[in-house]
Amino acid sequence: MSKRIVVDPITRIEGHLRIEVVVDDNNVITDAFSSSTLWRGLETIIKGRDPRDAGFIAGRICGVCTYSHYKAGITAAENALGIEIPYNAKLVRTLMNLALFFHDHIVHFYTLHGLDWCDIISALSANPAKASKLAFEYTDNPIATGEDELKMVQQRVKDFASKGSLGPFANGYWGHSTYHFSPEQNLIVLSHYLKLLEVQREAAKMMAIFGAKQPHPQSLTVGGVTSIMDILDPTRLAEYKFKFETVADFINRAYYPDLIMAGMAYSKEHSVLVGCNLKNFLSFQEIQVAHDEYLLSSGYVLDGDISKVDDVNLDLIAEEVTNSWYKYEGKHSDGTPIKPTDLLHPYDGQTTPNYIGMQDGMSIGPSGKEEKTKLLKTDSKYSWIKSPRYDGKPMEVGPLASIVVGLARKNPHIQEVAEDFLKRTGLTTAHLFSTLGRTAARGLEAKVLGDYGLKAFDELVKNLKVDTTTCAPYVIDKNKEYKGYYIGNVPRGMLSHWMRISDGKVSNYQAVVPSTWNAGPRDSKGQKGPYEMSLIGTKIASLTQPLEIIRHIHSFDPCIACSVHVMDISGNELGQYKVDPSFAKF
Ligand code: NFE
Ligand code: MG
Known about the structure:
Layout: E1 3-7, E2 17-23, E3 29-36, H1 43-46, H2 54-58, H3 66-81, H4 87-112, H5 120-123, H6 128-134, H7 147-162, H8 183-211, E4 220-221, E5 224-225, H9 228-231, H10 234-265, H11 270-273, E6 281-283, E7 286-290, E8 293-296, E9 299-301, E10 317-320, E11 326-327, E12 352-353, E13 358-364, E14 370-376, E15 387-390, H12 399-408, H13 412-425, H14 435-452, H15 454-464, E16 482-490, E17 493-502, E18 505-512, H16 514-519, H17 530-535, H18 547-554, H19 560-564
Antiparallel strand pairs: 1-2, 2-3, 4-5, 6-9, 7-8, 10-15, 11-12, 13-14, 16-17, 17-18
The site of magnesium ion has 6 residues, from strand 18.
């Protein structure tokens, strides 16, 4: 008899994600459903607004990748209006983007995902002297692993535990049979977990140096950047460089060695060597460090075959809502009605809610026995996330896609770091197609940016000697129709924003977001998205402690706020604004 397990909410992510799985008599997952239970829809708010506002509103989609949607909204307007921004502005945007990638990747590995790999309770019984020596096995230059420091870390957590409360570490599945670090290895990761809290502040400050604040920086404007005083101030530049080096140092001396340690310790744990059943990957170039040089490559790879890679065709990106709580309205140009099963290109996308609720059912309760509960209507609509498709196919986006596409493109930086990781862990390229591989890929991407990102800084300093332009002039003609887009990679994968402008106002706006690609429900053909596919076939060791489910899903770094985009829950008008686009001349 099959049974249903519900994990809701999956914590340590941004937003509310619900996972329902069906397991067979051997506790193997035979079906899986991914659902966002939050109502959002920020695209609707942007409609009718001045196109120059889109970035500022879109930036509020999420407080995690706070810069991504801001930059995407500003860039979509520039693309629509045919604006080529100055080189200095491109490089400053890269420096801000590096801050975001650093921040999100290190915070994900330690704060959001680390405890799926590191057993805190085991760390309490570690021998700090032994752990301090052990750290040198994974790097010549470890950080935060001196014997005294490790003793203090252990004492801090012991104090927590002795008060009967583990604070942020409460409710973990400590002692689970799929944890594989030794007590000493757990103590090393725990120490880096605490060190991260200092380092992430530096990454946030990196953003604020050129962005004025963090989260939600505000120095991008349609046409360029406004941080001219900061980029002409040598002390601000030096401050950025110092902070960049601090974070890159942490990546090289803690994050990367910890991933090598995990690769070795978990190389026999079957449940982390699976978790990537959909091997279609989509990625887009990002992190411009010179006129024609990007650190991350564009392309798509199907069925895990990295001997083939093709260019991304923007016309083939589309979303359908067969199993999403939305409806499609209106007619196609040939007069036929638009149906939820239709794949709509984002230029013509719609965001109209159609919630149909939950149903009564049974699932495994905390006691391990089946209990009455509310379940998703999984034979119908069951998520606020749409189903994006590329040429009709579901695709995984994110650091694993960026590494897979980079390898297929023979991107030298990606090849260098991936080969080093595989050599040092004894894993093979095939192992990358897994939850372990996805977790490692994020660290490999962070290392590439840490090792090579400062080229953008050097370019900026060089360029400023001959050119201090930061903004390009432009005119918005309200009698013209425009359309434009942003497409690129953000920390959780490929992001695109699509804008139409008429009468000087935004007439349609759609964001197709990384977590939408990954977390979306199945489509009209029954094709599951990456989250759902990742779960199929995994055996759960304990039905009341589904750590395997959590590990698979966390490895994608879900952001549900991003994937559904916020608006007022009652659909209330938030304000009225008069827009006069002729004012835009300067
Ligand atoms: Ni809210 Fe985001 C990133 C975007 S999401 S975190 O990175 O875009 O998937
Ligand atoms: Mg959207």
